[in-house]
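For the sake of transparency, this paper describes our internal protein records without simplification. The remainder of this section carries one protein's record, kept here as part of the documentation:
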Amino acid sequence: MIRKVFEIMLKDYDTVDAFCGIRRVQDIAEKNKTDCFPVTDNGKIIGVLTRSDLIKTHPNRIVLDAMSGSYKYIEADESVWEAKELLEGQGTDILLATQDDKIIGIVTKNAINVEISKHIDLLTGLYKSDYIIYNCLKFLEHGSEISIVFFDVNNFGYIDKEFGHTVGDNILKEIAQILKDNAPEGTYLCRYGGDEFALLTEVCAENCKALAQDILNKVKQHEFYGNIHIGISAGIAGGERRNPRKGNMYKTVTNLINLASLASTKAKKEKDNLVLGYSGIIDEIAI
């Protein structure tokens, strides 16, 4: 499940008065290992003071001289991915987490980066499945159509056994690079697990066929490590919305991903390399 801001926010945090001396705050930061302070004046937050601000400012100055006004609010129930996008989009170092219009915690850029790093696949550098699920939910909330293209390496178990896991790892890295190089702008890519990769797009399923076929051809034309022949299969799932979306969006997304995965398995069995897995079933089950 996608983690929420309230799960990683700092609930017990220090605030500093705008007219407090920098030297004193430096001592607090050192003692409490604090990277960031909300700055208050008459009980209201008017800015934030980061460790970087403390380092750059002379100890004899006051907080008001050193603080930055760069901070944003976020609902504590929002996802960590939403927090990441907000931090990057606004160029801030801290988010103030709220609930019922009250500040209940702070989230620093460092805390977000630590959390997001858990969702990066160390072998390929791609994000893991959580990233695709988050962006699927985001598309659906904005009323967009979504389609999933699922890629599955053919006979990967044999490759691992015949040539060793190190060779298998190199091949997965090469496939990941092919996907990165050929994924159109506005699509989202992840290593779903093992030898499986998923690509999310707002393009309807029928129109994804050319995209998937192009990537399959790129893999086919690529000269892999050790000149080993590699093929992949692809399955596509998506559907046109006939009714307003409601209910459990997470279930909608996982159903769609599962259908795309089944379609890729079917493609592999039929040795067709590409199965368009969308149907009216998706409308009824998933949307």
User: Anything to note?
Assistant: The chain has a mean pLDDT of 88. The longest strand covers residues 44-50. The longest helix spans residues 249-270. The chain has twelve helices and eleven strands.
